[in-house]
Amino acid sequence: MTLATITFQNFFRMYDKLAGMTGTAKTEEEEFRNIYNMRVVAIPTNKPIIRQDYSDLIYKSVEGKYKALVQDIKERYEKGQPVLVGTVAVETSEIISKLLKQAGVKHNVLNAKNHFREAEIIQEAGQKGSVTIATNMAGRGTDIKLGDGVRELGGLAVIGTERHESRRIDNQLRGRSGRQGDPGESQFYLAMEDELMRRFGSDNMRNMMDRLGMDDDQPIESKMVSRAVESAQKRVEGNNFDARKQLLAYDDVLRQQRDIIYEQRQQVLTSENLREIIINMIRSTVTRNVQAYTQDEDDEKWELDGLVDFIHANILETDEINANDLKGKEPDEIIDLIMELVNKKYDEREEELTEEQMREFERVILLRTVDSKWMDHIDQMDQLRQGIHLRAYGQTDPLQEYNMEGFSMFEEMIAEIEQEVSKYAMKAQIRDNLQRVEVASGTKAVSGGRQNEEKKKKPYIKKENIGRNDPCPCGSGKKYKNCHGKNA
Which residues, including other chains, have CB under 8 Å from residue 398's CB and lie 6 or more apart? Predict the structure, then answer.
């Protein structure tokens, strides 16, 4: 089971201060502002950028693109200009490597498979006659130093085998050349069959190339085309941002609940005496059930026997209270009477144990119950999240429905925590070797010693013929089919 969950965005937003530095944040300025309330400030470069960024070359087929790309690399290699080839995928880097071997071009491949030599390969990438193939993740942000005589040859040439769906990744690739005022060049080779081109309007461009009679070896080089590609990237980034924003909106519902639970958990861990918290939980449980069994305006129709059964099963012993004690009293008076007996019994429990044992007992039952119920709640919220989008077919807002149902489920969980803590506080047997256990063990019952654990694990035995819709004899107040009759 999931013990805890949080999105990256909400995790980062827990910090009092957020700041960072990157060379490519400007394209994501809107997301930084909307999600993290952070402004993006562009700092001027130390020295002017003199790198030449050429327009994209677009080919009809991938084969035509690779052929032209390898030819370009070979020409630069023969004149000694260092080349850095950027690929989107590891598979592409291996294809380019194979083609370069066939062309007789010596090169290094940096695709996270050679991570032991990564620093060494990057160090050599700016030397004369060096050719390096790198995936977008490999060697990112590294300052490639130019070797002797390289500046006169035009500096480091960066060649992209296709456009990434994020402009930031392309900018990071370009930015490996022309650093600190060095000369450099960048050129992207695209094909109509590339993923980005296929997703955004490559058919019209392909038809135009066919009408003009262009073959696989003839590229289109146009600022207009480059702008169209950038526009496609913006759309993909927008879609991805919307998806992250949607995810965050759903996690914000859980975040409010998470804050309440963890605040309560922290209070349990740091408080010296938890008696007041537990007594308040017992009062809340008693109040909830008294109201449920006495909701009819005619007090003759109150289900006092059912209320007494619940009190016997969860709070007090059978000889401590009966239905006759409650007759003729108002609901508030019934609550006060029960709580008076609860306080008396709690005092007796404290006298039986040492102060240290009682405080640890309180902490154990609270921690185990809260952790157990919270894990169940996370699982239920995840199941709700999986299918909530179907509510849109019923002309309702899925997020609003998730918020409302999530709140209702959270209130039910709080009620279950209070009832379980009440039962353990008043009914559990306490042993000398009581201790806390890890949440991950999944232990839901409070127990002291192995003997008591085994006792808790015994199944409920059905002793009489009980109807599925009858109240469960355990005293939970639920129908038998929803309680001990689930697996019957």
Answer: 388, 389, 390, 391, 392
- Token representation of residue 393: 């077919």
419 conformational bin, left if phi > 0, alpha if psi -120 to 50, beta if neither: alpha
CA–CA dist 362, 378 (Å, integer)? 24
| Mode of pairing for the β-strands spanning 52-53 and 108-110 | unpaired
Q: Which amino acid is at 24?
A: T
Pairing of strands 220-221, 57-59: antiparallel
Neighbours of 242 (CB within 10 A): 10
What pLDDT score does 192 carry? 82
What is the rounded distance in angstroms from the CA atom of residue 346 to the CA atom of residue 425?
8
In this prediction, residue 454 carries a pLDDT of 40
DSSP 3-30: -----HHHHHTTSS------TT-GGGHH
Q: Cα-flanking dihedrals φ and ψ of residue 401, to 5°?
A: -65, -40
Q: CA-CA distance, 284 to 264, in Å (whole number)?
A: 16
Closest CA to 162 of 96, 103, 223, 105: 96
CB contact set of 36 (below 8 Å; sequence gap of 6+) = 9, 12, 13, 18
Amino acid letter, residue 466: I
Regions of the chain with pLDDT less than 70: 112-116, 136-142, 200-215, 222, 430-465, 467-469, 475-477, 480-481, 486-488
Among 332, 409, 389, 381, which residue's Cα sits nearest to residue 6?
Answer: 381
pTM reported for the whole predicted model: 0.63
pLDDT tens-digit readout, 31-55: 899 888 899 999 998 999 999 999 8
* Separation CA 427–CA 430 (nearest Å): 9
Residue that the structure tokens 């006169």 belong to: 152
